[in-house]
Amino acid sequence: xxxxxxxxxxxxxxxxxxxxxxxxxxxxxxxxxxxxxxxxxxxxxxxxxxxxxxxxxxxxxxxxxxxxxxxxxxxxxxxxxxxxxxxxxxxxxxxxxxxxxxxxxxxxxxxxxxxxxxxxxxxxxxxxxxxxxxxxxxxxxxxxxxxxxxxxxxxxxxxxxxxxxxxxxxxxxxxxxxxxxxxxxxxxxxxxxxxxxxxxxxxxxxxxxxxxxxxxxxxxxxxxxxxxxxxxxxxxxxxxxxxxxxxxxxxxxxxxxxxxxxxxxxxxxxxxxxxxxxxxxxxxxxxxxxxxxxxxxxxxxxxxxxxxxxxxxxxxxxxxxxxx
Amino acid sequence: xxxxxxxxxxxxxxxxxxxxxxxxxxxxxxxxxxxxxxxxxxxxxxxxxxxxxxxxxxxxxxxxxxxxxxxxxxxxxxxxxxxxxxxxxxxxxxxxxxxxxxxxxxxxxxxxxxxxxxxxxxxxxxxxxxxxxxxxxxxxxxxxxxxxxxxxxxxxxxxxxxxxxxxxxxxxxxxxxxxxxxxxxxxxxxxxxxxxxxxxxxxxxxxxxxxxxxxxxxxxxxxxxxxxxxxxxxxxxxxxxxxxxxxxxxxxxxxxxxxxxxxxxxxxxxxxxxxxxxxxxxxxxxxxxxxxxxxxxxxxxxxxxxxxxxxxxxxx
Lengths: 324, 316
Known about the structure:
A: Rossmann fold, B: 10 helices
């Protein structure tokens, strides 16, 4: 793992949203508040968190659909933090797969048009070459024979098939980096694994780096190499997937895992250990450790000082005073 | 026996033709028992619930079958009788996404009190007092009765909706994906609340979900639905640990597990179009064990020795 080539590196990235309050004031929503993260070529990093954790904002910042207000983003050795205008080369290399396959495909375009558009924008191939690229992408996402799908419209496909089109659209440009934002959360349970295996196989073949954003920590077990757990704009735990799931350190990570049931009939006889309350607003995050109001182990220190990110075992990091 | 549903059918009229949403569904439910209706989108689980509540959309073409509640055939009741005696009083429901349909301009306490004022002829103060008790029961501070929906978080609103469903002391409460819009940590809180209510009130529940792992958190028995049919019905132990119907087997194998080393599988293909469902067994186009017979003849409901019911030719 150590020798893998760095694809994208985020250094202390902050992305805030500013919303007007009254006539003259604005307030900042600190969606991503100082995140450092590296994705290597051929690696999948899962970003796990609940709504409001900033995981989607982080993903959009990584593909520069959003511009951070502080920090640095280095992609293949180039600083792209504040890239403006001249970013077509980056757009070609970094693609996003969206959560909702029902709203992220233009309903007035056929599958052929949806897949050809990025090729036209990036001036790739002549019409017959493009036809070939599109057919290959459809075959890769197991929508075959391609001719059967080319002239269809999105509404004629099932949710799973639509998400496959979303993946094919990201693939036609042969990107190096893909941000997959909850790619299976709106898909039937029986098809989720199929979509995730598809992504994993394509990634292995083309050595892409993937940022897999999800609220479902159970899927990370099979589809990621590293996990970053986010809470209120910060990463609270990071490490190799197997280590994090076997030995979760942060009380929040443990609570997230405890909340997910396996299909076990004895579950109904016992209550789950849950963390009380709900995540506070990122407009005015708690002092000290942001998790302290919900944490069963919180001390006075947690309320005042913010814990540093420390390496507890090789490659496994946590921001919590329990491990200092 | 609290509830007996036999051969329930519900077809919708659309421009493309008749949608066979619920096609011969039978099950029963004991007092204090929770039954899970589990299946993918479009399998007919929500339509089954709407039929029990008799809240049918205008385009219903066929509504047939027998629903017996407390030894009374409620299918033969007039609309007026059903409204006055059954709906909300005996069977209540938490709708999917209901927390987002609270009235934004009314205090949530009043919204919980309102059905008691209308159905039980309580005066307003008495109903509000009972609303405060209900709030306590669902884990909300009684003072929250004076709040408006926008002053509550998603998890709190879901608790309000559950309080509303409990207001008239129903015997059966139907929960349609009650946690699907919530974060996992809040989902676990709501599931704990439902477990406590089930134990404390001894109320019967029908829990509708696409997530069979979540069903294990609450259900005593589980009915797996596919394309308008129940394909397997048994105790939680039978269905979760040793499923018999190939679809139930596949559905359980597709769950990613956190605590076990079992790689999740998937079911190739997509659920069928219910305007024109496949002949024979509706699962045959996706079934690894399908034979010629499965394509032609619809399998009957087969009772196995252990008491469960399976709709599959492998067992008959």
